[in-house]
Every structure is written in C-alpha cells, then in structure tokens.
Design a protein that fits this description.
Layout lengths: L9 H27 L6 E5 L17 E6 L2 E9 L5 E3 L2 E5 L2 E9 L4 E5 L5 E4 L3 E9 L3 E6 L12 E7 L1
Parallel strand pairs: 3-6, 5-11
Antiparallel strand pairs: 1-9, 2-3, 3-4, 6-9, 7-8, 7-10, 10-11
C-alpha cells in the first residue's frame, strides 16, 4: 500500500491560511463587540394590534411618552407611523444624565427603523410587534433618533430627539 501526498500549490496554501486567519479575526471582533462593548440585540417584547395600538385607552401608545419608573430609570413608549405625517410620537423626550431608558417602540402602519445616534441602539420597528432596548445615557447632549428603514415618501423627515440634561 503506497501513501501519496497531496500537492497544494504554495500560492493556494497561502490564500487558505490567509482566509482562516481572517475568519478567526472576524469571530474575535464579533465576540469583543458582543460581550466586551455591550452590544445588545433588541428583543420582541410583546404583540399589539397595530390597528388599535394608538387608540386603545389601555395601550401606553395611546399617550406615548416618557414614564419615570424610579429615580434614574425610565420607560419610553414611542409610536412610529407613516400616515398621515411620517413621524415618531413623541417628537422629544428629556432625561437627566446618568438615566437608564428602556425604549418600547412599535408601529401602527408600516415597517420603520429606529436608530438613536451616538449609541448602539438601532432596530427595526414592525407593525404589531413591540421592540425593546435599554440604553444608559452617561453624557449630556442631544441624541437624535431617526428612521432607518424606507417607509414611504416622507421617510426622510421622520426624526425625534432625546435631550439628556446635566
């Protein structure tokens, strides 16, 4: 029985090694981002009826806005809708620096995006689904939130602001 060695061209071998090293680097970068930098995935919190979410008196989105749970902890209920005005409700919320805010965001009509600039919050807003993500605001300033999912001709004017006061 003879043993034959498989011949791999050095050029091809170097590319295979380079590819394996890149895979290890990418896996390391994702792991560091996920665990070391606190990247969170928004989770579907609950289901709602998109037709009545804004009008149901028992729904927090019938009167969207900020609610203080305890000092330094807030819940923000944000409703996004394209018709008739392409807007987020409320347009603006204000919290003191050091506050932790849990965002509960849903849509009453079409799919939207929700990105808070200068933070790691960025997720899709799907009609009938409530997405939740918690952010701690350690620096004073204005953090704009914008729609990142094309939702119609007024998509470019969908924005709001979080004002973090000292």
């Amino acid at each position: 029985m003879s043993t034959e060695k498989m011949h791999i061209d050095p050029y091809e071998r170097n590319w295979m090694i380079f590819s394996a090293v890149l895979l290890v680097l990418f896996a390391t970068a994702v792991s560091v981002a996920a665990f070391g930098m606190g990247i969170q995935l928004p989770a579907p919190e609950q289901r709602v009826d998109p037709k009545t979410v804004a009008t149901d008196p028992n729904s927090p989105w019938s009167n969207p806005g900020l609610r203080e749970i305890k000092p330094g902890k807030y819940d923000a209920y944000i409703l996004s809708h394209a018709i008739p005005n392409w807007e987020y409700l409320p347009k603006e919320i204000s919290v003191p620096v050091g506050s932790s805010v849990s965002f509960y965001v849903t849509s009453s009509d079409v799919q939207h995006g929700f990105k808070i600039q200068d933070t790691n919050a960025n997720f899709q807003v799907i009609p009938g689904q409530v997405s939740k993500l918690t952010i701690k605001f350690d620096k004073a300033g204005t953090y704009n939130y914008i729609c990142t999912e094309y939702c119609g001709s007024g998509h470019g004017i969908m924005y709001g602001a979080i004002i973090v006061t000292p």
